[in-house]
Amino acid sequence: MEAEEVNTSNAQNAAVAPDAPPVPGPADALDPRAGDRLVAATVRRGGPWPAVLAVAAVAGAVCELVLPFAAGLTIDGFVTAAPGRLTWLGVCAALVTGVVVCEAAAVWARGATGAHASAWLRRTLVRSILGAGDAMRARFAEGDLVTRAGLNAEETGRAPESLVGALALAVPTVGGLVALTLIDPLLTIALVAGIALVLLVLRAFMRAGTAIAAGYQDAQGRIATALLDALSGVRTIAAAGTEQRETARVLAPLPALRACGMDLWRVTASAGAKAGVLVPVVEVAVLAAGGLRMAAGELTVGELYAAARYAVLGLALSTVLGYAGGLARARSAAGRVAGVLAVPPVRHGDRTLPPGPGTVEFHGVTAPGLDVGDLVIDGGSTTAVVGRSGAGKSLLAALAGRLTDPERGTVTLDGVPLADLSRAELRHAVGFAFARPVLVGGTVAEAIGLGAAESATRAAARAACADEFIRRLPQGYATPVTEAPLSGGERQRIGLARAFAQANRLLVLDDATSSLDTVTERRVSEALAGGTAARTRLIVAHRPGTAARADDVIWLEDGRVRARGTHRELWADPAYRAVFQRHSPPAETPRTAVPEAVT
Amino acid sequence: MTPVRLLRDVLLRNPRRLAEIAGWSVLETAPAFLVGFAVARAIDDGFAAGRPGTGLAWLALLGAAWVVAAVGARQVVLAVARIAEPLRDELLAHVVTGALRRASGAFQAPAAVGSAAVARANLQVELARDAFAAVVTVVRGFAFTLVSVTLGMLTLLPQVALLVLPPFAAGLALFLISLPALARRQRAFLLADERTAEELAGLAGGLRDIAACGAQDRIAVHAEGRVEEQSAAARALARVTAARTAALAVGGWLPVVLVLAGTPWLLANGAAAGVIVGALAYVTQSLAPALNGLVEGVAVSGVRLAVSLDRILRSAPPAVPVAAEEPDGHAVELRAATFAYGPHAEPVVDRMDLLIPEGDHLAVVGPSGAGKSTLTALIAGMLRPDAGAVLIGGVAAHRAARPGRVLIPQEAYVFRGPLLENFAYLADAGRARVERAVAELGAEPLVARCGGYGGEVDPGALPAGQRQLIALVRAYLSPARLVILDEATCHLDPAAEERAERAFAARGGTLIVVAHRLSSALRARRVLLMDGGRTWLGTHAELVRAAPPYADLVGHWEPEYA
């Protein structure tokens, strides 16, 4: 079933490619400016904080810029006992106060800006992701989506901070260079040369670092893969008592990891030392040049002090690379976030269902890789969908309950197009159970009932033959889903119970009993048949027994309905029988992705 | 092991490394000692005294000190790395051991042990390594700078130290006082961040199911709650971080104002103008950056380190002592054995009595969830009964030495490596024996597919049936006299399954098969039926007569394969 899903989404992308507007690649949004607009929106949504940050950062930078000048005058004032010396001392104290207050305000505002911005982005993302549902899964891999909503939202939230930082940096660097030029243009030349050297060193580091980092990550990856392999075979290992040997096997790439790690440290250390020595050396050079002019009587001690400080302030320009990098990261992150927001949400109508038996009708329905045409599934019947892997069974099931919308045509339930139903009405009417259900909700009870009454939850669990093992879980129904030791079959039965608790007209089982042994499956089928609500059941089946018990069978082949009839009628066709022989017996969920066995 | 103890061990394990760090640190902080003094001398004895040569000489000395310092700084980084890298290795080993131990302890590993959990653990290790290196670097840098600057100021003019050190100490004290609150906020922020990431991962992974259940609003409200919590934690952290600047103001900026204000006093005590500039250089060039680094490093990296180490160290349950009692034979006996997955859970195996003599061939059947795998895990010694006893040759199963029995579960374990190594995992078997086993089990096509015995096996690329075949050959080669196949042949076709089971029956010793198909039960000498807490034991014919659920089972069992 997993394999089918993959095929479907691939087919979707391929089908869209030739004529439709290009599907955005995983790295960018439809519109390259969408990211920038998002950054702008983020700044606007930050409330007063971005403004506070800008004012504090710039004011602080100005204070810091004026300080060396005032300090120089203070020193000269005291040395020569000039009249204004106490006033300048006062100015210095005021400037230091200003620097400190602005710094505190900026730190606070920086944190608050980022927090507000990323929270707003994440809330928007959560709604957008949930609203688009399956379409989102077709476009982005799960891990990619998590990165975009997590890390990328955070990076985008830092855009205002980087912008303001770059802006505020202009004050000391431009000011420092101007002041230095006023004192002596030669000093400025020495300074600019120093800055250029720092930037060159940092660039060289980034290049060398990237190559070594790749080797490091490769060794890390090998360890992680070996660990996952070992975890998937943990019962064998535990039974054989070979944990220590496995630990050694998993950790075999450690020496390679350490070698790369030390290389990385070496590169970092060299770059750090080179960049670190440049700043003081440039300052010493400025002091020397200034000192010579002082000896010539053209510079006072205070001015010499100021010149040295301005050199340091001007050298702050070497941090511009950091801000530029931050801004570039924020912009590309914003592009990735915007790509998620660009996926349109699923629209729901506001109609409700009239009373009816749960008849499903397909009218001229096509979907990528599947052409159903017209098809009626009688209300109250049990219909099995069979076909080889990749025939489109899961897609048909998804269309019947509007997990996916068709490209063309409509699907109706008791005469009402599914797209016209309100979301609540639709989900109340249709329940899905899957081969590998993902259990949402904190506890097992919540995962089944999603807030329904306890009695209803338990009744559904009993119908799915799940009540017995749930009561054996560490905390029974209150066991957190993440801590419940569940086998594949048990997980499936909780997923079945969830569908039972929900659906009152149509129940779609997409290979949802594949991990159950035949006896349990039989019991579940009996519960299905004798269920209280008159439900229509659509069952994607791999076993002939399941198809045999159905009222009707839809046989899919290569995305089309090859035949329809009862299992008994179809069984006469050798091609039909071959469909079942190709399938492997039920599998407990392996933890690593394994292609379906063909034995 | 506590984080504190681990760090102490790591630091003190190799005193030479510490001496190395200290030595290079002295070089690295040479300018911190020299900067003010050299600037003062350059001005007062050189440029201001009309001797520019002397001034330039002092500045050249200072420049040379900076170059030496850069060499020192480089060596310090490498020396710290030589402590940090082994720490990383140790933490990774901890993560791997912990994951394996936890998973084997849980027997049916909770879904949480997946690739995401492994990635998170890896990230924690990297964060811990970087944070450790950062903390060691800044704390050491601070200490050496403080000593160097103090010595420098005393050399320059002791009165300077009087103006600078008291406010500096006050700033440091302020920081230390605010540290616990700061650490709390930082920790709260990191934890909220992790919770948000987990929430988002759950949301992304469950999209299909959330849509199918119409649970969007419910999930959105929950996720937004997490996002809001994290945002609140970030804002709270920003507030205390802003308050932290007070420490920098007092420790880094107040000395500047005091030196300027104290200039007349310093001049009266014999200082010239250069001494004032030198004193300011000490503060702005060395002391303030060192304090800044300390505040930043300890408050952020220190907390990060504590949180990560706590996570990593807590992830590994204590080691279980190795089972090593030599059993007397391999008869299996259960005496009123009871097992439940939790104190409030209903028992899966309830006061079960069972005797499997040596050489028996037993099939275990029953609906899924009846406790068949739990029973095999008890016999294999992976689980311990809550009450009663499970004995192998008279020894408690979890204490009995492992090589005497082998359990092959449904999910076959195949690791990346040569095929031969995979076969010989449990035995020291020569090539000839391996070839015989491969022939017995009909695994020749598998060997060909893998490119011979030396071929590298990629577990992800092998179909489940082929993986099971590898596990079966491995079990066949093992010296074990008790073989437990827990649906170990479910991915094989019926003919291959029969061949494998017959090979194991002919191999000798005790064989327990958790049956996936009726045919497995028919081949066994005896059948154990488990159903809803009740058990029946007997031959196939006996059970058909005496156990109604068995007759029902046989009637319905796999019509498609019959």
Walk me through what this model shows.
The complex is a heterodimer of chains A (599) and B (562). The model of chain A is unreliable at 1-29 and 582-599 (pLDDT under 50). Chain A has helices at residues 2-16, 34-45, 49-80, 85-132, 134-139, 142-157, 159-183, 185-232, 234-240, 243-250, 254-295, 301-315, 320-341, 393-400, 423-429, 444-449, 454-463, 467-471, 488-502, 518-529, 544-549, 567-571, 574-581, and strands spanning 360-367, 370-377, 382-386, 408-413, 416-417, 430-434, 506-510, 536-540, 552-557, 560-565. In chain A, a hairpin with a 2-residue loop joins strand 4 (408-413) and strand 5 (416-417). Chain A has 3 domains: 25-169 and 321-341, ABC transporter transmembrane region fold (Up-down Bundle); 185-298; 360-581, P-loop containing nucleotide triphosphate hydrolases (Rossmann fold, 3-Layer(aba) Sandwich), CATH 3.40.50.300. In chain A, the strands form 2 sheets. Chain A has a 6-stranded mixed beta sheet with strand order 6-7-8-3-9-10, sandwiched between helices. Chain A is of the alpha/beta class and 599 residues long. Chain A starts with a helix and ends in an 18-residue tail after the last helix. In chain A, 52% of the residues are buried. Chain B has 2 domains: 3-314, ABC transporter transmembrane region fold, CATH 1.20.1560; 332-556, P-loop containing nucleotide triphosphate hydrolases (Rossmann fold, 3-Layer(aba) Sandwich). In chain B, 66% of the residues lie in helices and 10% in strands. Chain B has a 6-stranded mixed beta sheet with strand order 6-9-10-3-11-12, sandwiched between helices. A 4-stranded antiparallel beta sheet of chain B has the order 2-1-4-5, covered by helices on one side. A two-stranded antiparallel ribbon of chain B has the order 7-8. The chains are: A alpha/beta (599), B alpha/beta (562). At the A-B interface, helix 3, helix 4, helix 5, helix 6 and helix 8 of A face helix 3, helix 4, helix 5, helix 6 and helix 7 of B. Chain B: Residues 25-289 form the ABC transmembrane type-1 domain. Chain B: Keywords: ATP-binding, Membrane, Nucleotide-binding, Transmembrane, Transmembrane helix. Chain B: It comes from Spongiactinospora gelatinilytica.
